[in-house]
Specification:
By secondary structure, the protein is of the alpha/beta class. It is built from 13 helices and twelve strands. Bound molecules: pyridoxal-5'-phosphate (PLP). Pyridoxal-5'-phosphate is lined by residues 39, 101-103, 127, 173, 177, 205, 207, 236, 238, 244, 249.
């Protein structure tokens, strides 16, 4: 008999793994299900990207192994975009690295810096790839709860000194999934300072940097002096260009850190498909034009969602970035129960806060992945459920 590893056993089960099968059943029964669970926008990828891909698929050279070097054109486009977007220069050959989606890089980077038993500081609620990567690499996750009172910021200064001494990596993500919080320059400065003091790799996940509203501009970690010695920054084409399934992102950072991640990846993958890199280069070179409509549409959805939620009796802040609304629940309603009932009784898929770790309990997340009218309809249904929950009509907690 095969026995499984302690690391596999340590991976937490995904809460509400049964949601997709309930959704399928309901659709089969003719229910009009509105899915605002996963962060997967309903907008198609831009035409330019699709057309570039179509011709790339017909180019045999782009069907070869890319290896870690990948398509030089993609690295160059990535470096050009970083320079245009943040005014920062990185060498396309030694300081950028194509990723098969940023999730892959985030999960692998911990292998480059942590020995078994070293600490990896992981935000909670947070993107679960950080925790998974840490566990699979044999690191010891230290869960840093993100709390409303601290603006959902992961404050390294609140972590005990003896933990910081053992820490090799911290995952920091602003604009944040799932809370939609953003980071102030002061916060980033103190985070870089602690990482420098303790030799902690700052894995800065900037997947949502271009999904910003009302004039807010999300910074790069490398705008902070001294960050180049300790940080690697991760970017994704998934959300900004509606390319989630294409699997394309990239990392930037100092030569040694990018070299270490490259070395890890050279043993586990052969880089993103070159044709996808070709299309990604076209996207990055036109980013300003292509992202603007996606951002404007998300802002419309955010506004409609916030108005509808408040009207339906929920409390919610208006986020300045990302593509999520993070909404508190009444104290006696577990988020898993709310999400399951939202689907079963209202035909709406939302993610329970507990899907982002136990510290996410007490909230649920809406992704702005459908148009304003559908979103409003979904929220109206959720409001009906909230009302019934408040009246105690749905007391049969499973
Ligand atoms: C915070 C965060 N980081 C990274 C990713 C991964 O994006 P991808 O692997 O598609 O580039 C996601 C996806 O939802 C995310 O929410």
């Amino acid at each position: 008999m095969i026995t499984f590893s302690d690391r596999l056993a340590a991976l937490p089960g995904y809460p509400l793994a049964e949601l997709p099968s309930i959704k399928r059943r309901l659709i089969g029964e003719g229910v009009d299900v509105i899915d605002i669970g996963p962060g997967d926008n309903d907008a198609p990828p831009p035409d330019l990207v699709v057309e570039t891909m179509v011709s790339a698929v017909r180019t045999p050279a782009l069907s070869k192994y890319g290896f870690q070097q990948g398509l030089p054109e993609f690295r160059q486009a990535a470096a050009r975009w970083v320079e245009r977007r943040f005014g920062l220069r990185f060498d396309p050959v030694t300081e950028t690295l194509p990723l098969i989606g940023s999730k892959e890089g985030l999960a692998h980077v911990v292998f480059a810096v942590a020995n078994p038993g070293d600490v990896a500081i992981v935000p909670e609620p947070g993107y679960q790839a950080y925790l998974g990567g840490a566990i699979l690499a044999g690191a010891e996750p230290y869960i840093a709860p993100l709390q409303l009172e601290q603006g959902f910021l992961l404050e390294l200064e609140r972590i005990p000194e003896h933990v910081l001494r053992r820490a090799k990596i911290v995952f920091v993500n602003y604009p944040n999934n799932p809370t939609a919080a953003v980071a102030t320059p002061d916060y980033l400065e103190r985070t870089v300072a602690v990482c420098r003091r303790h030799g902690i790799l700052l894995a800065y996940d900037n997947a949502y940097c271009d999904l910003t509203f009302d004039g807010y501009r999300a910074p790069s970690i490398f705008e902070i002096p001294g960050a180049r010695d300790v940080a690697v920054e991760f970017f994704s084409l998934s959300k900004s260009f509606s390319m989630t399934g294409w699997r394309l992102g990239f990392a930037v950072g100092g030569k040694e850190l990018i070299g270490a991640l490259t070395r890890v990846k050279s043993y586990v993958d052969t880089g993103p498909w070159l044709a996808v890199q070709k299309a990604g280069a076209a996207a990055l070179d036109q980013a300003e034009v292509l992202v603007a409509p996606i951002r404007a549409e998300l802002a419309r959805r955010r506004d409609a969602g916030v108005v509808a939620l408040r009207g339906a009796g929920f409390e919610v802040d208006t986020p300045e970035a990302a593509m999520y609304l993070w909404i508190p629940l009444p104290a006696d309603v577990p988020s898993g129960v709310f999400a399951r009932r939202a689907l079963e009784e209202a035909g709406v898929v939302v993610l329970p806060g507990s899907a982002f770790g136990p510290a996410g309990e007490g909230y649920f997340r809406i992704a702005l992945t459908v148009g304003a009218a559908r979103l409003t309809e979904a929220v109206t249904r959720l409001g009906g459920l909230l009302e019934r929950l408040r009246r105690g009509e749905l007391a049969s907690t499973p």
